[in-house]
Amino acid sequence: MKKILLIEDDQIIRESTAELLEFVEHYSVITAENGEVGYRKALTELPDIIICDVMMPKTDGYEVLEQLSLNPKTKFIPFIFLSAKTERKDVRKGMNLGADDYITKPFTEEELNSAIESRLAKSAILNELRSIEESGNKSTNNIKQLKNLNDLKDFFKNYGIPFSYETNKVIYEEGNRSKYVFLILEGAVKSYKLNEQGKTLTTSIYKEDDFFGYTSFSNNIPYPDTAETIKPTKVVGVKKEKLITLLNNNHKVVLDLVDLLADNLKEIKDQLLDMAYSSVHKKTSATLLKFAEKINYKSDDIIKVSRQDLANVAGISLETLIRSISKLKKEGIVEVDGRNIKILDLNALKTVE
Amino acid sequence: MKKILLIEDDQIIRESTAELLEFVEHYSVITAENGEVGYRKALTELPDIIICDVMMPKTDGYEVLEQLSLNPKTKFIPFIFLSAKTERKDVRKGMNLGADDYITKPFTEEELNSAIESRLAKSAILNELRSIEESGNKSTNNIKQLKNLNDLKDFFKNYGIPFSYETNKVIYEEGNRSKYVFLILEGAVKSYKLNEQGKTLTTSIYKEDDFFGYTSFSNNIPYPDTAETIKPTKVVGVKKEKLITLLNNNHKVVLDLVDLLADNLKEIKDQLLDMAYSSVHKKTSATLLKFAEKINYKSDDIIKVSRQDLANVAGISLETLIRSISKLKKEGIVEVDGRNIKILDLNALKTVE
DNA sequence: CGCCCCATTGATCCGCTTCAATAGCTGTGG
DNA sequence: CCACAGCTATTGAAGCGGATCAATGGGGCG
Fold first, then answer.
1. Among A118-132, A267-281, B98-112, B130-144, which is the least confidently predicted range?
2. Residues B160 and B238 placed together within one structural domain of the fold
């Protein structure tokens, strides 16, 4: 019988979930009421899977995961986050730390169960692969084994070629043959396309710790857009051929990469929907939020970007963007000082229109 | 020294390219002036890489590739297409047949060379993996080895669960937890999102032989959009867990899948650009082209779709779409009969605005 | 044969772009 | 240290493209 460790501070949720898992789904369940206890029980019990609340007093879920990742005994145990937050940001943070899944409260029985099952299935496969890799396979042993995207990032940092750029420097241009995949160490990058009339539309913004430039790994296909820095930026690049070699020996990471792409795809589809039917005012708000999240994701909510850049992301004219920001200013949602825009009321911005 | 087989009917291109490869890049080059000779030389010489023109009298490039894929001796030789056509359609066709890369004429020395190098590098890795897999690795031997996306499609056809739908039936809805990945056997599917006001935007159209529903493989994440049939459709679905198992043992296919996603991403970014700045007339033309390519990609250019569906893809109002089509009708670019739209002048449609 | 949905056309209204002019900021050289 | 050049931001006015509302026509299916 599979053993599940459930870490959750809310007594009611903890007990009802444990009951569900134990009597309906027939797992063996261990519970912990806080992060410390959870961490200790994980070490002593070595469960098959860990389900852990994110928001807990003192040691939160992120810390538990981080601790467990450091220990070779526990680092391969599938880790599922339980959270009330549905923010993309939070989900990403958890995933980046190496979580395997993310369930938001309230969840249905079916959701929980399917997450657990798919995790267990995957971990079984990975265990098998790991044992194969550990025994035979000498020829590729010199290549590091990567557990998740974080490890891939470390690889980039250690073995990639560093490049430095000032503001508004082009890293690659649409149509260039793609040779490198990049990771941003510091700064931010926009990628944009031009239409026939020469108008610019920014399709993505990448920040510190983001990968970019991954068009096609197998084929020698031109970049579909131009990448340009929007602040002084340091990146590391890894040649695609090298990356392919690496990925061929690290299956889990490839799947994570597929996920990253799928995530990008979702984001762009959202942008597409906005672009098609939203009012300018809404586009402006969405753009400000995007920048707040991407560029200044850890500092406070001051955005320092040219109006033109903002307009290009929103896909509207410069003047219209400015008018729209003025309106937000009048409504008391933002504060403007020169080119700096400070978000005063984040929630109001999210619900514009 | 690596041996390259170059199949190209145009004497001038053949000779100059051969010269380039031989004297500048120092490969050993064999040439063939048509498909038959090329095929025979491939079998006898077993080159390390094959570069082949697509458009040739009698046996064209596609046929050569198809023939070579059938022979176990030649099926693993990297195959690069050389073509004057830059159409996405053509590129896709080649890739689907299992080509490894696609270079468009005229090409630069650097383009050609980097394609060859990256192919050779990849094939070296794959050879190594193949030998490892063939020797050890009994535990997963019962799982089929897949060479490319085509093989993956075969797997779907053989082991997937079949579903049948009439027109306008929902396959999955935005927010559903994703369990299956689908392959279309017959028919066509649109995937769309709704905005707050309930307006619909179609973000993708999938046709026969397309995969869809691949949101995230590792995570138990909701579908980001709704999939609905636009004609009677038969699909096969494979559970994600199963797919992950499969993919873990088939590295090459995963990379192909990454490419497919990257390709989708490119397509959507293009749509985004159109959406932002194109006139309605241009959006209409682009939409018609999209349908011509997607829905009726092998029959002639008659499109039979509701006006509303067209409008949803274009992201414009129904009436505006109709007016725009009327204009195309007046210009003699299309012909309308009831709900059928026939494209008379494909090129004119491509260059609208 | 008639109903109903879908396609089409007309008229009106408004949001957004564009063009144009001014104000404000930054940096550079005398 | 100031003045001027050359950006970037802001505001105003005009025009138009596309959405919306409304009414009519047409074709397929029960």
1. B130-144
2. yes
The range of the structural domain enclosing residue B286 comes to: 278-350
HSE value, Cβ hemisphere, 13 Å, CA-based, for A258: 25
Q: Specify whether B253 is located in the same domain as B293.
A: no
- pLDDT for B286 equals 93
Q: Is residue A131 part of a domain?
A: no
| Shortest distance, CA B218 to any CA of chain A (angstroms) | 7
**What is the pTM assigned to this prediction?**
0.75
Among B258, B44, B336, CA closest to A181: B258
Whole-angstrom CA distances from B25 to A58, B2, B13, B31, B169 are: 63, 10, 16, 16, 56
CB contact under 8 A, A195 and B258: no
Would you call A114 and B251 a contact, using CB atoms and an 8 Å cutoff? Answer: no
Does B265 lie in the same domain as B317? no
Distance from CA of A139 to the nearest CA of B (A): 9
Q: Tell me, what CATH number does A50's domain have?
A: 3.40.50.2300
| Distance, CA of B119 to CA of B125 (rounded, Å) | 10
What is the count of structural domains for chain A? 3
pLDDT at B137: 44
Q: Nearest-CA neighbor of B277 among A206, A283, A50, A48? A: A283
Q: How many angstroms separate the Cα of A237 from the Cα of each of A113, A172, A184, A212?
A: 40, 12, 9, 10
The pairing of beta strand A3-7 with beta strand A28-32: parallel
Among A108, A193, A277, the strongest candidate for a mutation testing the B interface, having the largest count of B CBs within 10 A, is: A277
Same domain, A233 and A153: yes
Chain A residue with minimum CA distance to B177: A111
B339 touches strand C (CB under 7 A): yes
- Does residue B104 share a domain with residue B11? yes
A192-196, A218-222, B198-202, B203-207: segment of lowest average pLDDT: A218-222
Q: How many CB atoms lie within 10 A of CB A340?
A: 11
User: Which residues make beta-bridge pairs with A346?
Assistant: none
Residues A98 and A57 in one domain: yes
Over residues B307-327, the pLDDT tens digits come to 999 999 999 999 999 999 999
Based on the domain organization, do A228 and A303 belong to the same domain? no
- The predicted model gives A34-62 an average pLDDT of 92
| CA–CA distances in Å: residue B261 to residues A224, B212, B213, B224 | 13, 10, 11, 15
Any domain includes A140:
no
The CATH number for A330's domain is 1.10.10.10
Q: Mean pLDDT lowest for which of A157-161, A328-332, B84-88?
A: B84-88
Q: Flag if A177 and B114 touch (Cβ within 8 Å).
A: yes
Confidence at residue B133, expressed as pLDDT on a 0 to 100 scale: 53
